[in-house]
Structure formats: structure tokens, C-alpha cells
Design goal:
The chain is of the alpha/beta class. The chain has helices at 12-23, 60-70, 84-89, 91-112, 145-164, 186-198, 219-229, 248-257, 287-293, 301-323, and strands spanning 3-7, 27-32, 51-54, 74-77, 117-123, 168-173, 176-177, 205-207, 213-214, 217-218, 237-240, 246-247, 267-269. It has a 7-stranded parallel β-sheet with strand order 3-2-1-4-5-6-11, with helices on both faces. The longest helix has 23 residues, at 301-323.
Length: 326
């Protein structure tokens, strides 16, 4: 039985990946930090099937101990500070946990067992301002601390692959959403607000720039891609995206249509929510991944919004039940 170690198993991506690997017969180990101990919502249904290890990506000792103890065949680093907006306010932390932590983890893997196959997700935010579509060789031009940190992690992964011959691959991920997104992200903030407004639990939604265009994909598809990338004969870098652009306003439209409301009656705008640095409207070319392992998006934009609104309607109904006197 193959063993896999998922760093950041409690998050959106880590939890989907755990499900995928369990279905494929893996022994699944997860690395999680103290602040996640009370937030195992995404993996509650898996707790009797996985092995959890305490630690932190800022703590080399815990990373070393876990990798040495588990000795995985495959390792997926889904742990970082992955919010662009937050990175402007937590610059040092974002650089360290999203960038430097990748270097310390790869060095630990190199010292313990260079045969471990390692996957590092990076981000389209590395490209920053660029012409569409981007490919794996597009010049890096990040416009945020998060984008800079991801560019560092991308280069570190390539360095360990090229210099030490490690099986270290990256997935250049564009925005990927799911019902497991937290409402720190504008996509979930919108679908949750639409559901709660429709149920009378919320009156308004405050947003920033809704003209931004984004390449939205489904997190489950991206985690299938991560798995497939580590099954290839050689390590490499692959763009994973939908290849289509949709604006935040379109996301608003679809979300509120799903609950039969007009978002214009419920949305207010706050310029303080605009980001200080803007990227281009980035969309990628995933043809390399299609050729290598048959990657193709399985969930449309409308279906993606719909599944998230459906989950938020369910959670809104649960909140209503909990608020009723017994």
C-alpha cells in the first residue's frame, strides 16, 4: 500500500486530495497546525480513515519528525497562506509560510529520502501582469506579496528538481473554488450572502471591485490533477485552470439568480476593499496537462456557483433550525 503525506489536510484542497487518495487505496497521513485543531470540518468524515500529525510549516522540527516517521511515497504540500488580500497585511508571514517553508520542506525531504515524490501547488498570481493565455514558460511578474512568495516556491521546487534530481513537480493553479471555501474569499462570501439574504438571515453584502475577471475552476478537478502529476514518469510543471474568464459580477449574477433575487437590491460597495496591486485578467493554457495526463475541467462555471449556493442554502436552513427555541 502506498503512503501519502498531505501538508495542510484540513483545508479545501487538502481534504479533497485526501478523499481522492483514500479511494485509490493509499494510506493517508495529514499534517496540521494548532490553529486548525478546532477546524476539522472538511475532514470530519475521514477522521477514522486517516492518520494526523501535529506541526507547523514554520517549525522545521515538526516537519522533519513527520516526514521521517511517515516515510511517504508521495508528499503534497497544500499548506500555506493562500489569500492574496491577507498577504498585503501579513507580508512577513506570507513570505515565510508560502515561500521559505517550501525550501525548508524540500531540504528535509532531500535529507531523509530523495525518492519521495513531492508536489508543490503554485499560483497564476506569479504571472501578475501578462498576456493571455499564460503557459508554463510565461515570465513571472507578481504584483502581491502572495504572488512573490508563490514565485519563490515555484523556483525552489525547480531548483531541487534540477540540482538534486528530486521528483519535485508543480501545479500552476488558477482560482479554484468549492463548497469547502471559507467566506474569507469573495466567491464564498457572495454565495453565502445570497443564501442567507434569501432566508432572511442577512440584509446586505458589501464588496469591492466586481469588474475583476477570473479563471475559475473546481477544486476537486485540481486535486485530481495534483495526483496525476505525481504519477508521471518525470517531474514537471503544469498549468491547471478552466481556460475561461468570468467577472465577479457574473459570479454575483449566478449566485443571486440561484435564489431568485436581484443582487443590485442587496449589494453595497466599499473602495477600501480594492486591492492595492492589480494583476491582469489571467487565464491559462492547460494543453500541456491535457497531453500529459488527459486533464480537462469537469465542472462548468454555472455548475460551480450552483453547488456552492446549494451548500450555503443548506447551512442557512441549519442556522434557522438552531435559532428556534426548543
Amino acid at each position: 500500500m502506498k503512503k501519502a503525506l498531505i501538508m495542510g489536510i484540513t483545508g479545501q484542497d487538502g481534504s479533497y486530495l485526501a478523499e481522492i487518495l483514500l479511494k485509490k487505496g493509499y494510506e493517508v497521513h495529514g499534517f496540521y497546525r494548532k490553529s486548525a485543531t478546532g477546524n476539522k470540518k472538511n475532514i470530519m468524515h475521514l477522521l477514522d480513515k486517516i492518520h494526523l500529525h501535529r506541526g507547523d510549516m514554520l517549525d522545521s522540527t515538526s516537519i522533519y519528525r513527520t516526514v521521517d516517521e511517515v516515510r511517504p511515497d508521495e508528499m503534497y504540500n497544500e499548506a500555506d497562506q493562500d489569500h492574496v488580500g491577507w498577504s498585503y497585511d501579513t507580508v512577513d508571514y506570507s513570505f515565510d509560510v508560502t515561500g521559505s517553508a517550501v525550501g525548508r520542506t524540500l531540504e528535509i525531504v532531500r535529507q531523509i529520502d530523495k525518492k519521495i515524490r513531492y508536489f508543490q501547488p503554485v499560483s497564476s498570481n506569479m504571472f501578475g501582469i501578462a498576456k493571455n493565455p499564460q503557459t508554463e514558460s510565461t515570465q513571472l511578474n507578481p504584483q502581491s506579496p502572495y504572488g512573490c512568495a508563490k514565485a519563490f516556491s515555484f523556483l525552489l521546487t525547480r531548483y531541487y528538481r534540477n540540482v538534486f534530481g528530486m521528483f519535485a513537480s508543480t501545479g500552476i493553479f488558477y482560482n479554484h473554488e468549492s463548497p469547502r471555501r471559507t467566506d474569507d474569499y469573495v466567491t464564498r462570501k457572495i454565495t453565502k450572502a445570497a443564501a442567507r439574504i434569501s432566508k432572511g438571515l442577512q440584509k446586505k453584502l458589501v464588496l469591492g471591485d466586481i469588474n475583476l475577471e477570473v479563471d475559475f475552476g473546481y477544486a476537486g478537478d485540481f486535486m485530481n490533477a495534483a495526483y496525476n502529476i505525481l504519477q508521471l514518469d518525470k517531474p514537471d510543471d503544469f498549468i491547471i485552470c478552466s481556460g475561461k474568464l468570468h467577472s465577479i459580477e457574473e459570479w454575483l449574477d449566478e449566485s443571486f439568480k440561484a435564489v431568485k433575487l436581484d443582487w443590485k437590491d442587496h449589494v453595497e460597495f466599499d473602495k477600501s476593499l480594492f486591492r492595492p496591486g492589480k494583476t491582469s485578467s489571467l487565464t491559462g493554457d492547460y494543453s500541456k496537462a491535457t497531453k500529459a495526463f488527459g486533464y480537462k475541467p469537469s465542472v462548468s462555471f454555472k455548475e460551480l456557483v450552483g453547488m456552492m449556493v446549494k451548500q450555503d442554502l443548506k447551512e442557512a436552513d441549519e442556522d434557522i433550525l438552531l435559532s428556534k427555541p426548543r
